[in-house]
Amino acid sequence: MEAAIVCHRLVKRYGDITALDRLDLEVPTGSLFGFLGPNGAGKTTTIRLLTGLAWPSSGRAVVAGLDPARGGIELRQRISHQDQQSKLYGWMKGRELLEFVGRLFGFRGPDLRSRVDEVLEKTGLVEAAGRRVAGYSGGMRQRLNLAQALMNRPQVLFLDEPASSLDPAGRHDVLDLLADLRGQVTVFMSSHILEDVEKVCDRVGIIDRGRLVADATMTELQARFAEPVFAIELEPGQAAAGADLVTVLEQSALVGGIGRNGAVLRVAVNDASRAGPEIMRILASSGVHVARFERIRPSLEDVFLRLVPSQRPPETRE
């Protein structure tokens, strides 16, 4: 199946500043693609190029079978874009807003009513459809944002920070909605909330200083870039013994680094099969009382911090 998004050596310069540097990328059709990077890395620039809101300095892109720089009205019919700062008409009712958007895309009469009903059902807004948008909660407004973005049945949906301003309940609702879109529409999601991307996305691209540093499935990223990590949780009252334990562990050639958060040590190792028994031997001989010792599944944050060192926080030692 042809990829929904293809970038080939895509470059965007603003004067002497290179915001995007030879981006090569393919996003599979029907996938939920997470696009990550620190502030200023080039995420928003990429979305602007792929949605036709800006033109590349060089290179080319194909989105839903069209060149976004020349796609015009046909591109607008095939894609949709939800900006981070989307505005809604608060004086409208939810259904009225979707009918307004639907008419902009050419829906009329029974087709319009049917499509609005379908989108309200998909986004869980049927009961709120007759209420004014000004009275919606943050989570409901974000679902309405997604509803209007889905009105034209887009092949590709671009989302810029879709859950960044929501409380936990609102984020949960939006993430569930995005997960339900898998296979129905290709979602290109820019976000700085790594936990959200890890929950719903099946493929992730990481960009830093305008360059793509990784593009793979979650499983591939963890296998290639995340060091094995063991967690050691100390019993209460073991602060002094814990400090001595860190000193001993740091002397092992198998230990790549140690982070400490209160009573929990995170020990990154080079070879899990050899390091596990070695750490257990050190624990047994140290006399430290341990509440928990286990190997932790590397998270997307572990991968991100390894690939983007500038975002790595300093280790805390207590």
Describe the structure.
It is a single chain. This protein folds into two domains: 5-216, Rossmann fold (3-Layer(aba) Sandwich); 227-297, 2-Layer Sandwich (Alpha-Beta Plaits). Helix content is 36%, strand content 26%. The protein has eleven helices and 13 strands. The protein has helices at residues 43-50, 72-78, 94-104, 109-122, 138-150, 168-180, 194-200, 218-225, 239-250, 272-286, 300-307; strands at residues 5-14, 17-27, 32-36, 58-63, 79-82, 156-160, 186-190, 203-208, 211-216, 229-234, 255-261, 264-269, 290-296. The strands form three sheets. The chain has a six-stranded mixed β-sheet with strand order 5-6-7-3-8-9, with helices on both faces. Strands 11-12-10-13 form a four-stranded antiparallel β-sheet, with helices on one face. A hairpin with a 2-residue loop joins strand 11 (255-261) and strand 12 (264-269). Helix 5 runs parallel beside helix 6 (168-180) and helix 8 packs across helix 11 (300-307). The longest helix has 15 residues, at 272-286. Residues 313-318 have low confidence and may be disordered.
